[in-house]
Specification:
This is Transposase. By secondary structure, the chain is of the alpha+beta class. Helix content is 37%, strand content 16%. It has four domains: 160 residues, no CATH class; 112 residues, no CATH class; 188 residues, Nucleotidyltransferase, domain 5; 90 residues, no CATH class. The protein has a six-stranded antiparallel beta barrel.
Length: 678
């Protein structure tokens, strides 16, 4: 039992009525009395309060005999506010437009009025008749006795909560309905029309409002503004026609003078029935509303605790166009796919593809994430310093785009390594906000369209994007992800700083995978040709000491060819891998002569182009050889007057050792000697 406890007498008790609620105010030991308060509510009247005194012994005996019982469900606000709560009162203040004083403000005003009573609270409640003391104070202050007494008791009985002093407007106002049948006719409500006169227009009754809502639902759609919907609804749903007056101005009218809404009325009732967000979704679509208008639902990083607990992959295109090393022609922009850890925003993988976003790029990014980054950078001719790019392993939870990132072959290659995969809705960047916000931004240039043709080939451009990734890991501001412990440890607020901190603590969910398994799962499988001097792919020879040590070259006879399965990085085939006796052997492209080895850094597409160009050159060579032979024979005949192969074939062996032959040889030598030549 405490001040404000609500008590009932189910069968009545002394002067207490049944089915009434009494509020315990005070047990006065000095006067052996218990004071209870009862609130009286009458229609169209202000609440009233009555203070009831009862002998202390009588009250306690009633409790012991269960004649007086504590009501199980205790109310937190006075009975005239029974349907309200503090939250509802606060929300009611928010939606009231043009208010001069909020409900809470009015309650605080009332609290100021009862402050003198609260200052004398002990004296008043210890008096022989507290009601007389309260009324005496009210008259002294010039206040209404009934209201001041009710406010005073309400404040004390409901936990000294200022909201208990809120006005009881909620049940008494808001009942006037302009759409009721008795108010269906007459001048329209609201601002008077300045072009049609004060009495122009129609009132909106319930039937018209229903027609407005139904017509909006029927005609709304993506890209359709409300003005266009209104124009269509006036003709299709309200039966209006278009009238042209003597000044050439057009307006809507109804042939039978039936009521129809103005655009202002139509818009008002649409926005009154539907929320602004629903109207925006109908006009702009879910994605735009979600991306631009919806409130933030929190950070994705708050759902993870460890490194590699969740990663996101997405692709972007370079703003400049690479040049082909074969001919120098302009190529499509390079597609770059990056995989980023959600917890630290650290880029753990990168992949590339030409012409468009392909699953090859996502596979390459997974390959990059799985292996040591020093090894991956070496494949592109990059030397990494210690600590520049340190992540190794795959994440068990991967979020990738629909389309290239969700192809069946990619799912099969990931297999059981990545048990959780999430495909966000199409065109929904906020579903993978970590990687989307990390994509490079370009400046939109107005005027005549222009483009940048880079002097870099695709491999050089890929090297640039790898360096861009490293730069972002060490410079991007992710201070919003720093925990208090990280701040105390003076962790650098960059992805690399957070990664290093959590990695030292062992907070990682990264899945280990061997280099050989990564090659088999994520690289592109291609057929190689093994010959006696090395391994060939599209005419490019590959070799290595490890390959020679396997003895596979010795198995191939001169002129013989064997088909062998191998793997390549599509964008850089300077290195490749073939599988021999269950082992993955690395092989490197070699030049036929000592020269600049940067020529070997090409894509598999350029390697195919060079192979095709080499085939054309060999075909041209065959024709060229015949033409050269014919030209030389012709010049010989012109010089000697003899045919290139003049002579006749004889039977037997030539008799170069007989006397005649020797004499002829001696005579020829004598004639051809330098002395005779002078």
């Amino acid at each position: 039992m405490m001040i404000g406890t609500q008590i009932a007498a189910a069968n009545g008790f002394g002067g207490l009525d049944k089915d009434a609620t009494y509020y315990f105010l005070k047990s006065d030991a000095a006067h052996s009395k218990v004071w209870l308060v009862r609130f009286i509510l009458k229609p169209r009247a202000r609440p009233n309060s009555i203070l009831i005194g009862m002998q202390r012994s009588e009250f306690e005996s009633g409790l012991d005999a269960n004649e007086l019982t504590v009501i199980e469900e205790q109310q937190t606000l006075p009975p005239w506010l029974s349907n309200m709560s503090e939250e509802k009162i606060w929300k009611a203040d928010l939606v009231r437009l043009g208010r001069e004083l909020t409900l809470q403000g009015r309650a605080e005003k009332r609290l100021e009025h009862i402050e003198p009573l609260l200052a004398r609270e002990v004296e008043i409640l210890s008096a022989e008749n507290p009601t007389l003391e309260i009324n005496r104070c009210a008259r002294a202050f010039g206040k209404n006795e009934t209201r001041l007494r009710t406010w005073f008791f309400s404040y004390l009985l409901f936990g000294r909560n200022v909201f208990a002093l809120c006005p009881d407007y909620f049940e008494k106002i808001g009942h006037w309905d302009r759409a009721s049948p008795e108010r269906a006719y007459g001048p329209k409500y609201g601002r008077r029309s300045i072009k049609r006169g004060a009495a122009g227009g129609y009132r909106v009754d319930k039937k018209m409002k229903e027609n407005i809502v139904n017509s909006y639902v029927r005609h709304r759609g993506l890209g359709k503004p409300l003005l266009r919907i209104y124009s269509k609804a006036m003709v299709a749903d309200f039966g209006c026609k278009v009238l042209t007056d003597e000044k050439g101005r057009k307006r809507f009218y109804h042939p039978d003078s039936r009521p129809f809404p103005t655009y202002g009325q139509y818009r008002y009732h649409v926005l009154d029935y539907f929320t602004p967000e629903e109207v925006r979704r109908a006009l702009y679509g879910d994605d735009r509303v979600r991306n631009r208008s919806s409130a933030s639902a929190g950070r994705f990083s708050s759902a993870v605790a460890n490194l590699m607990e969740r990663v996101e992959s997405d692709g972007y295109y370079t703003s400049d166009y690479p040049s082909s090393p074969v001919g120098g022609e302009i190529l499509p922009p390079l597609c770059v796919v990056r995989t980023i850890d959600v917890g630290s925003s650290y880029s753990v993988g990168i992949g590339f593809s030409l012409t468009k976003e392909r699953s090859d790029a996502y596979r390459m990014a997974q390959f990059c994430a799985a292996i040591p980054k020093v090894e991956f950078a070496r494949l592109f001719g990059i030397h990494l310093n210690a600590g520049e790019w340190e992540s190794v392993g795959l994440s068990p939870f991967w979020v990738a785009d629909r389309g290239p990132g969700s192809k069946a072959d990619l799912r099969e290659q990931c297999g059981d390594l990545i048990p959780f995969r999430e495909l966000p809705p199409s065109h929904s960047g906020r579903s993978k906000a970590t990687v989307e916000t990390a994509n490079p931004r370009s400046v939109t240039i107005e005027g005549q369209p222009t483009y940048v043709k880079s002097d870099l080939n695709p491999v050089q451009m890929a090297v640039r994007e790898i360096y861009r990734l490293i730069e972002r890991n060490h410079s991007s501001d992710v201070s919003h992800k720093l925990t208090p412990e990280m701040i105390d440890a003076e962790t650098m607020p960059t992805p690399a700083g957070i990664w290093a901190y959590l990695d030292r603590k062992g907070r990682t969910d990264a899945l280990a995978i061997s280099f050989q398994d990564a090659v088999r799962r994520f690289l592109t499988k291609v057929p190689f040709t093994v010959e006696s001097d090395g391994v060939y792919l599209h005419g490019q020879r590959f070799d290595s000491s490890e390959l020679r040590a396997t003895g596979v070259i010795d198995r191939v006879a001169r002129g013989q060819r064997l088909e062998w399965t191998g793997y390549v990085l599509d964008l850089c085939v300077r290195y490749a891998w073939i599988e021999i006796d269950g082992r993955i052997i690395e092989i490197a492209a070699v030049l036929p002569i000592r020269d600049d080895e940067s020529q070997l850094s090409v894509t598999i597409y350029e390697l195919e182009q060079r192979a095709a160009q080499k085939s054309i050159l060999k075909a041209e060579l065959r024709e060229h050889q015949q033409a050269v032979k014919s030209e030389i024979e012709t010049r010989f005949e012109e010089s000697t007057g003899m045919a290139w192969d003049a002579g006749s074939r004889k039977t037997g062996r030539p008799k170069t050792g007989c006397r005649k032959s020797k004499a002829a040889q001696a005579a020829f030598v004598k004639v051809a000697s330098p002395a005779n030549a002078k």
